[in-house]
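Lab notes, practical 5.
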Amino acid sequence: MSIACSEADVGEERLHATRVSLVKDVQTCRVVAVNPEAQDVVSLRLQPVSGGLHDFEAGAHIRLRLGREIVRAYSLCNGPDERDAYVIAVKREPASTGGSAAVHALRIGDEVEVNPPQNAFAVDWSSSHLVLVAGGIGITPIIGMAREAAARGHSFELHYFARGTAWAAFAEELGACAWGDRVRSHYGYEASRVEAEMQSLLRERRPDSDVYVCGPLPLIDLVKKIAATSWPAERVHWESFGGAAVLPAPGESSAVEVRLARANRTIRVAPDETILQALLANDVDVPFSCREGQCGMCVVDVIEGVPDHRDDFLNDAVKANGDCMAVCVSRAKTPALVLDL
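Output from the prediction step:
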C-alpha cells in the first residue's frame, strides 16, 4: 500500500497531481496469474473482464476494492511492454487489517473491482539520471520505474535492500534481466551497514539526477536525512507503505462536526476517532492507504473551516493555504469543517 510525495511539492498543478480524489470509474478485473515472488509475497496479474487497461506510467498505483470497508492501494510493477493486465505484488503482513490477507486469498479466476491507475510517484524523465532505492516490498513501484527507464534507454541505477534473498521479491528477475548490471543488491545488512551504504550512495550527487525511494519509513527517513546535505529538496522523492491507523491520544482532540457539501450530510467525529474512521463508518467512500498521514491518498478539499494539519505529506505552503487536508490524521481548529465530499 502506498502513495508518495517529494520533499518540496510546489504549485497547484503539482498538488493536483499528487492529491488523489474520489474516482467513480471502476473496472472489474479477473485474476489470471498468481505467482510466489518471495517469502510472504505474491504477484498477481489482473486482467479487465471487458475493455483494456487505462493508460499509466511507472510509479502509478491502483486501488482494489476487497470488501465493504477494505479499499487498498497497490503499486503497479508493469513494464511499458506489459499492457494486457495490471501487475501488482503484495506482502502478507501479520498485522494486516484485511488488505494483504484478502489479496493472498485471491485465486485464478476470481474477480475484483479496481479503480483506474493514479500516479503520485511519477518519474521526472527530464532528469538525466535516476537513483532508485527500494527496501523490501518497496521494490514494487521501483521495478516498474527500472523497467521503463531501461525501455527508454534512460540512465539509472537500482539499489535493493532486503533481509535476504528469500525476502527479496523479483530477485531472480533482477539478477537475470538485460539491465541487471545496473542493479545492486544489499541483502542481510545490519542497520549500521545500511547507513554506511547510503552515505556512500548519496554523499555526492551526480549532476542533474533524482533519487526515488520506496520502502519502510526508517529507510525513507535515512535517505532524506543523508540526501539533505547535497541534494536539492525537489530532487528527492519517496513513497511510503503504511500500517495501523494513528488514533488521537486521549484528551488530545475534541469532537468535530464534518459537513459533506456534495452529499449534503453532516457527520460527527468523536474525540477518540479520526475523520477518516467516521466517514467510513457512515458509508462515505474515501480513498485511503497508510492511515498515518504519510501517503496523501486521503487528501480532500476543504471548503470552509480551518484544518489542524497533523500529516507529513502536505508541505508547509499547502498547509498554510488551508484548502485541503489528510483526513486520516488531521482534525480541525474550528468547531466544524465543510469538505468537498
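Observations recorded by the TA: DSSP finds eight helices and 19 strands in the chain. The two ends are 23 Å apart (CA to CA).
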